[in-house]
Write a structure and sequence with these properties.
Blueprint (H helix, E strand, L loop, with lengths): L8 E5 L6 H11 L10 E4 L14 H8 L5 E13 L3 E9 L1 H14 L17 E6 L2 H14 L3 E5 L1 E6 L7 E7 L4 E2 L5 E2 L4
Antiparallel strand pairs: 1-2, 1-7, 3-4, 3-6, 4-5, 7-8, 9-10
Helix pairs in contact: 2-3
Length: 196
């Protein structure tokens, strides 16, 4: 079965605007995608073309899937990297708890099974927020040390995912916010996912 897909749409988790500035400060120096993407974690990408977003096709299915996942607290504390061949790499922030993002992405993927690009990688889905690119192994290690040394962990409450799109040569913008189910605060104030 074939699926209509485009790299001009995505389902993403977007951090609260209150924590954007330290992330954007890094991206302004290191991320060539700064002006195309807001800070985000891809969950389903590529996704349906925007002309197929009509309510009966996509949004109710997203709403139903998101209501299966409680809202949760997210912390960005650690920088990691992916390599792309011998010399290129992407630096990214590791959202914690990873398990909550894996559960969210798996629930969305169960609903939109043909949109599995984020799950195909070795080791499965790796939630990440990209902050920059480098062109040598030495630069990776140097930048990681610098970023980690000067980074103060930031937190936010993820209570919705976003359906986003962009015109052919423009930046992504939000089409719709899709709420997650209400989270239940645990003893430490973080959301209890209600799973064993």
């Amino acid at each position: 079965m074939s699926y209509d897909k485009t790299h001009q749409t995505s389902v993403v988790a977007i951090p609260s605007g209150a924590i954007w500035e330290p992330i954007q400060a890094i991206r302004r120096e290191h991320d060539r995608q700064l002006h195309r993407w807001m800070p985000h974690i891809n969950l389903l990408y590529p996704f349906y073309p925007r002309d197929q977003f009509q309510p009966e096709r996509v949004i109710p299915r997203l709403q139903a899937a998101c209501q299966q996942v409680p809202a949760f607290e997210v912390t960005f504390a650690t920088f990691r990297y992916f390599t792309h061949g011998a010399k290129r790499a992407t630096i990214w922030l590791d959202p914690e708890p990873r398990e909550s993002f894996v559960h969210l992405q798996a629930t969305l993927h169960d609903t939109f099974s043909g949109y599995d690009e984020q799950s195909r990688h070795r080791g499965g889905f790796t939630p990440h927020l990209s902050v920059g690119q480098v062109t040598s192994r030495r630069a990776v290690q140097s930048l990681l040390v610098t970023l980690q040394t000067h980074w103060a962990p930031v937190k936010f409450h993820l209570d919705a995912v976003a359906l986003i799109w962009r015109p052919a040569d423009g930046p992504f913008q939000v089409e719709s916010h899709i709420p997650l189910a209400p989270g239940v605060a645990g003893e430490n104030g973080e959301a209890d996912l209600g799973r064993a």
